[in-house]
Design goal:
The complex is a heterotetramer.
Chain B: H1 4-24, H2 28-52, H3 57-87
Chain C: H1 2-7, H2 9-43, H3 59-69, H4 80-99, E1 108-110, E2 113-115, H5 125-135, H6 137-146, H7 150-181, H8 186-193, H9 210-223, H10 235-238, H11 248-272, H12 291-308, H13 313-335, H14 337-366, H15 372-401
Antiparallel strand pairs in C: 1-2
Chain D: H1 2-5, H2 9-24, H3 30-56, E1 65-75, E2 78-86, H4 88-111, H5 118-137, H6 141-159, H7 166-197, H8 202-209, H9 222-237, H10 246-249, H11 255-264, H12 269-276, H13 278-282, H14 285-308, H15 312-332, H16 336-363, H17 381-395, H18 401-415, H19 420-446, H20 464-479, H21 494-504, H22 512-546, H23 550-557, H24 559-566, H25 571-618, H26 626-657
Helix pairs in contact in D: 2-3, 2-5, 3-4, 3-5, 4-5, 4-11, 4-16, 4-20, 5-6, 6-7, 6-11, 7-9, 9-12, 9-14, 11-16, 14-15, 14-19, 15-16, 15-18, 15-19, 16-17, 16-18, 16-20, 16-21, 17-19, 17-20, 18-19, 18-22, 19-22, 23-24
The chains are: A mainly alpha, B mainly alpha, C mainly alpha, D mainly alpha.
């Protein structure tokens, strides 16, 4: 039981608890907070895997921008605790078992299928951010540009959606 | 040194929890968050693989996923605001008609 | 016992460092409030605090005591958990960010160990800092929301929107520096500025990165919710903004968090644009190394001279003592050159930090507050484009000069 | 070699002119449009001259000079490049096209001065120049085909230039469609050639073709078929039987167009193509014979029609057809150089004739019917003189251009082994007819008493811009033939010598023995030809000057023949009955009302109805509740994952079962 393993289990526990909390909490703000916890834990895992840059971006963008946006909207709409309707029969009955089956499926699948990955897995050398940048701006430059375009479109869409139609 | 499939199983579990949240929550915002949770689970898998094969492509994809998530959040939240404005409710089960 | 020490030395040392740093930072915070009040007062031709202790030097203690002893009411219908979480988060994050800063170039040798100044030395230091800054939004936002009251909610909304908006500019404006240093590590950034020791001040990043610096400082001010960007706690509009409903120590937490982040930002400015612990003089000017003593001794003497004529007895005792200590330290530095050498780095860094803190206070004494729409358009339409342009220009220049 | 290395400049200039005029000309005054149009063509003419100068400095090894600019289609082994080629044949065509084209541009500035759509006209005209140059410069059949279609398009546009007149648009459409038929044959020919030789570039293809054995007479070998198909295209473009019908109607277009496109350049493209692929034709004697016969038949056929036409341009149109027939006759008997020579001279004097006719029409204020003219020789002197020159030239009076070219054709026809004498006889008779109807035109137009009333039309000479080109062309059609003059006193025929390297490749050039025999024959045949021409002149004079009443009597006396000729042998009516009507019936009754309305629309509507049906039934699955959708999504995901990961899941599943 070496240090990384301990850290992994701690962080994994935190993440899972956060996710469960996301399901159990009734108020959106608390859900958001628990999701943030999950994200921070994941960032920790990325650090553990030596992906520092991704970890930082995870916190900065997910934690610092996206989730803030969520919180902002929740505050803006003053969303209260969600009401307990149960109109969708199907979801109520078949939802949970199906979801659990799915979870088990994926887990079993990866557990079964990763033996080859295991063979290839070396010690995760700390990912040099320079190399990442090189990859991002040379090999993946066109996707990168496309994402910039995507963001532009998203901005426009958000503006169009959120502005009150003047009449 | 943590075995790769630990990460993968963890990501599977998180993904599954995301799905559960998606099905069981009624608040649109929360459902949206559960989508983000699933995305994060996928990211974890990406990074795990990129570490396993010692290749950075996985991390690049994580970056892309994050970008997409950001764009999605911007637009989605805009839509949510509209919904709240038009239907005075954030409960998906109350939003089941195509027209008001 | 000893082998325990030997085994877990790293941990213990780190813990000690943390405690020391916490103590220092909190004290500095306390005296920062005194400093601010004094400076602003003199700007407005008032005396400022001068009752408690000589020159009001004990005012911070009094304030601290007050914060601790006051009653701490929790308003009706607040969201308990979040209500408590918010100030905690704010303070923790603010203090954490301090831990990433390096304070000196070369480590101390004690017990045969190299102990460098600063708690952790991440090779993604600046990114980590930004990550923490990004999270610190929640302090204000959650506080505002959980208080279950109008003004705080507005304050929270404002601060979250404002911080998201200015974070972009903040991050972008640093990219130029990072490009020049080719690293995220704060140490590397400083060393990159030390590339040409003979140039001295001319080697600093401010000159090539002046645009970046201006953007960074402005955005940072906005991030710390300081005047003129303090719309989240605009007294005239929102009573006290997001911490209206907070009292006593929780309020103090926000307070400390704000001042701590001020310190952090000042440190960042001086590290990234003003050469951190580098001396502004060319390396060849060795006599510049005596500057610390050259400042400390006269100042100490002046304090003594000022102290003996002080009206209260207490002052007549304290002030000369302080002055004497200062003068003594100055003298020691001359006597023991190795200490002097060692003190150079921290001296300059602290000097610069002090300057920026003064600048903050100065702005507060001078500038009026933005209107909200002005704030937003300023951030999005001016700051962000300029910082982007800065990035482009820097990149082009670097490419042309073929680094 | 600045130009030869950048041959593309020559066609590009007119294209630029066309683009500029077409895009901006609408807002500009005519003078600006003139500068652009005339300037671009003039420049390209200059470039052509320079190119020729550089060409003259090439060593024989460098000829044909082929330059590849870029690959335009590349599929498998097939490569169609934008390759331009210059050899002697190209040089002749190049000079004719750019030179005559330029003159006609100048002429048009005067002629079109008062017409609407001025810039449009010049834009089209320049575009035509571009495509024509591509056609003559092309180094492979595919690029040549581009030019081929392009000139077809421009001819369509320009025939229908007065698009408000229904007859004009109809004529345009007619020309286009008839050409399509020919082009179809041409394309088939190209495909066959590619299949046979694996390339469409001239140089390698001919290199491959030379060693091939010639098909025997009457044997339908690959080459024969290919040649016939290409010739079908040629008949379409060059208005030979049976596809000549479009050319007379094409006279609906402005006269300069008739001069440039339908007399000088485009219609000769067919001849050019046949000459260009002479290597193939030389190896397909039966195809050659067909060419000769068709050419000969067309010549006399059109000439007979030309006898009785009263519309001045129609007469010229039919004479064009018959002259083209001459050229094909020449090609058919293997005298390609003679054919090209006649092409050149014909370009000069026929362009001149048309332009002069245009000038006459201009003078008469748009009147085209010769019966309403007469006695103009005094009023429009210069037009009269130039037109007379052209007439003498086409009728074949020495020493004008037509004499030499026509003579050399007749000579080679006379010499050709299979059925030469018949061809010669017909050709000679056609010459007689030609000279007759040409002088009939002259006399009706310029002599006799005037048959128009002074008050409505006041006759006036055309402006300089129209007369100068007339004169230049007159000079050309005067001296243009002298290139071949030396043949008479046994010296080498410059023109044939010049073209020999091209046609020697196919074994086209006459052998030495034939040469000597030719010289022996030269004189007597020439004398016969001159006599014939004079005879035609005499008959015309007798009918239209000394006995003006006679023609009417003749027409009455042999009414049947007259009407038949007057109605052009009822060919149009025949085509209408045989081709057009059935097509119309097919397309309306079958294609439109059955296939389109019932089958296609039926299918579409049926699909639509089916979709609505299905939708109505499936709709109930759409509860509108997001969460149940989510469940469906999960189920789908489960299935997919199960499929993907089955190999890994199998052991686990089996384990569960046990």
């Amino acid at each position: 039981m070496n240090a990384p393993l301990i850290i992994f289990f701690v962080l994994a526990a935190i993440a899972i608890m956060g996710a469960v909390n996301l399901i159990l909490q009734s108020h959106p703000i608390h859900c958001a907070l628990s999701l943030i916890v999950v994200m921070v834990a994941l960032a920790g895992l990325y650090l553990l895997m030596g992906a520092e840059f991704v970890a930082a971006v995870q916190i900065i963008v997910y934690g610092g921008a996206i989730m803030v946006l969520f919180v902002f909207v929740i505050m803006l709409l003053n969303a209260g605790a969600e009401e307990r309707t149960n109109i969708s029969r199907l979801a109520g009955i078949a939802g949970l078992p199906l979801a659990i089956v799915l979870m088990g499926f994926i887990a079993a699948a990866v557990a079964q299928s990763t033996d080859r990955v295991q063979a290839a897995a070396q010690l995760g050398a700390p990912a040099p951010t320079k190399a990442l940048a090189g990859l991002l701006f040379q090999e993946f430059v066109y996707p990168f540009e496309l994402t910039s375009f995507l963001i532009l479109v998203a901005i426009l869409g958000a503006i169009v959606l959120a502005q009150r139609e003047k009449n | 040194m943590v075995p790769t499939h630990y990460y993968l199983v963890l990501s599977a579990i998180l993904f599954g929890l995301g799905v559960v949240a998606f099905v069981f929550r009624r608040n649109i915002i929360t459902i949206f968050m559960s989508i983000e949770l699933m995305l994060n689970a996928v990211n974890l898998a990406f990074v795990a693989f990129s570490q396993a094969w010692n290749r950075l492509d996985g991390q690049v994809f994580v970056l892309f996923v994050i970008v997409v998530a950001a764009a999605e959040a911007a637009v989605g939240l805009g839509i949510i605001i509209l919904i709240q404005r038009n239907r005075q409710s954030l409960n998906v089960e109350r939003v089941d008609l195509l027209k008001l | 016992m000893t082998d325990f020490l030997a085994l877990h030395a790293e941990i213990i040392i780190t813990l000690v460092k943390i405690v020391l740093l916490l103590f220092i930072v909190l004290t500095v915070n306390a005296y920062l409030t005194w400093f601010e009040r004094k400076v602003v007062a003199h700007m407005q031709t008032r005396w400022g605090p001068h009752r408690v202790g000589p020159h009001g030097l004990l005012q911070p203690l009094a304030d601290g005591a007050k914060f601790l002893l006051k009653e701490d009411p929790t308003p009706e219908g607040v969201d308990k958990f979040t209500y408590f979480l918010a100030p905690l988060m704010a303070l923790t994050l603010a203090l954490t960010s301090i831990a990433i800063l390096p304070f000196g170039p070369n480590p101390i040798h004690i017990f045969g160990r190299d102990i460098f100044l600063g708690i952790v030395d991440l090779n993604i230091g600046i990114l980590a800092l930004f990550a923490i800054t990004a999270l610190s939004v929640y302090g204000a936002a959650l506080a505002g929301w959980s208080s279950n009251s109008k003004y705080p909610l507005l304050g929270g909304l404002r601060s979250s929107a404002q911080m998201i908006s200015y974070e972009l500019a903040l991050t972008m404006s640093v990219v130029g520096v990072l490009l020049m240093a080719g690293s995220f590590s704060l140490r590397d950034i400083i060393n990159a500025q030390a590339a040409h020791p003979e140039r001295g001040i001319l080697g600093w990043n401010v000159f090539p990165q002046i645009l970046g610096f201006l953007c960074f400082f402005t955005a940072a001010t906005a991030e710390t919710n300081r005047i003129p960007f303090d719309l989240a706690e605009a007294e005239s509009e929102l009573v006290a903004g997001f911490h209206t409903e907070y009292a006593s120590f929780k309020f103090a937490m926000f307070f400390i968090a704000e001042y701590t982040s001020m310190i952090t930002i000042s440190a960042l400015c001086s590290i990234m644009f003003f050469g951190g612990w580098l001396s502004p003089f060319p390396a060849s000017w060795t006599f510049a190394h005596y500057l610390p003593s050259a400042i400390l001794i006269p100042f100490g003497l002046w304090v003594i001279w000022d102290g003996i004529r002080y009206e209260t007895i207490f002052g007549r005792i304290i002030l000369p003592g302080v002055g004497a200590v200062m003068a003594l330290i100055g003298a020691l530095l001359i006597v023991f050159p190795f200490i002097n050498e060692f003190i150079q780095g921290p001296f300059w860094l602290l000097g610069k930090i002090l300057f920026f803190l003064f600048f903050y206070v100065w702005m507060r004494g001078t500038l009026p507050r933005f209107r909200y729409d002005q704030l937003m358009s300023f951030g999005w339409k001016l700051l962000l484009p300029v910082s982007l342009a800065n990035v482009v220009i820097t990149a082009v220049v670097i490419m042309v000069r073929g680094h | 070699m600045p130009i030869l290395d950048n041959l593309w400049i020559i066609p590009l200039l007119p294209l630029l002119g066309s683009a500029i005029n077409g895009l901006f000309g609408g807002k500009w005054t005519n003078s600006v449009v003139n500068y652009v149009a005339v300037g671009s063509t003039g420049l390209s003419f200059a470039c052509a001259l320079e190119a020729v100068r550089e060409f003259s400095q090439l060593t024989p090894q460098q000829i044909p000079f082929v330059k590849q600019f870029f690959t335009w289609i590349a599929a498998g082994t097939f490569r169609a490049g934008f390759d331009l080629q210059v050899d002697q044949l190209t040089v002749v065509m190049l000079l004719v096209v750019t030179g005559v084209g330029w003159l006609i541009h100048i002429y048009s500035t005067g002629y079109m001065a008062h017409e609407g759509g001025y810039y449009r006209f010049f834009s089209y005209l320049n575009l035509f120049m571009f495509f024509m140059l591509i056609l003559v410069l092309a180094a492979n059949y595919s690029l040549l085909f581009v030019g081929w279609e392009g000139v077809g398009l421009c001819s369509y546009l320009l025939i229908g230039f007065y698009f408000l007149r229904k007859s004009a648009t109809d004529a345009g459409k007619k020309a286009f469609i008839v050409n399509r038929i020919g082009d179809f044959g041409f394309m088939l020919g190209m495909f066959l050639l590619f299949k046979t030789f694996g390339t469409l570039d001239f140089v390698p293809m001919f290199a491959k073709a030379v060693p091939m054995p010639a098909d025997a007479m009457g044997q339908m070998g690959t080459l024969t078929v290919a040649c016939l198909l290409i010739f079908v295209g040629a008949t379409g473009k060059s208005a030979q039987l049976p596809l000549y019908v479009w050319l007379p109607d094409a006279m609906e277009g402005p006269t300069p167009v008739s001069a440039l496109i339908h007399a000088a350049t485009m219609v000769t493209a067919g001849v050019y193509v046949v000459a260009r692929s002479h290597v193939l034709f030389m190896r397909a004697p039966s195809a050659m014979l067909v060419v000769a016969i068709i050419g000969c038949a067309t010549a006399i056929f059109a000439a007979t029609i030309g006898l009785v036409q009263t519309d001045i341009k129609k007469v010229l149109a039919y004479s064009t057809v018959s002259q083209l027939g001459y050229m094909f006759l020449a090609c058919g008997v293997g005298a390609f150089s003679a054919g090209i020579f006649h092409l050149m001279t014909h370009a000069f004097f026929k362009a001149l004739l048309f332009l002069a006719a245009g000038s006459v029409i201009h003078a008469m204020g748009g009147e085209q019917d010769m019966l309403k003219m007469g006695g103009l020789s005094k009023k429009i002197k210069w037009t009269y003189i130039t037109m007379l020159t052209a007439t003498l030239a086409i009728a074949g009076f020495p020493p004008l251009a037509g004499f030499f070219s026509k003579d050399s054709i007749l000579l080679s026809a006379f010499q050709s082994e299979n059925g030469g004498h018949v061809l010669y006889a017909i050709g000679l008779f056609t010459a007689l007819l030609t000279s007759f109807y040409m002088f009939r035109l002259i006399f009706l137009t310029f002599f006799g008493k005037q048959r128009y009333d002074e008050h409505h039309v006041h006759v006036h000479e055309s402006p300089k811009s129209m007369l100068v080109p007339l004169m230049i062309l007159a000079v050309l059609s005067l001296v243009g033939g002298w290139l071949a003059a030396p043949a008479f006193w046994g010296a080498p025929d410059y023109f044939a010598k010049f073209l020999e390297p091209v046609f020697a490749q196919g074994g086209g050039a006459e052998s030495a023995a034939a040469e000597s025999a030719a010289h022996a024959l030269e004189m007597p045949l020439a004398i016969v030809a001159v006599i014939t021409a004079t005879l035609g002149l005499g008959i015309a004079y007798w009918l239209y000057i000394s006995r003006p009443a006679k023609p009417a009597e003749l027409a009455k006396s042999m009414k049947g023949a007259y009407t038949t000729l007057f109605n052009k042998y009822y060919v149009d009516e025949l085509y209408a009955a045989v081709v057009v009507k059935p097509l119309l019936w097919l397309s309306t009754k079958v294609l439109w009302q059955t296939v389109d309305v019932q089958i296609i629309d039926g299918a579409v509507n049926g699909i639509a109805h089916g979709t609505t049906e299905v939708g109505d039934n499936v709709r109930h699955a759409q509860s509108g509740s997001t969460r149940s959708y989510a469940v469906w999504v999960i189920i789908g995901a489960l299935v997919i994952i199960a499929i993907i990961f089955w190999p890994y899941l199998k052991p686990a599943a089996v384990g569960m079962v046990r």
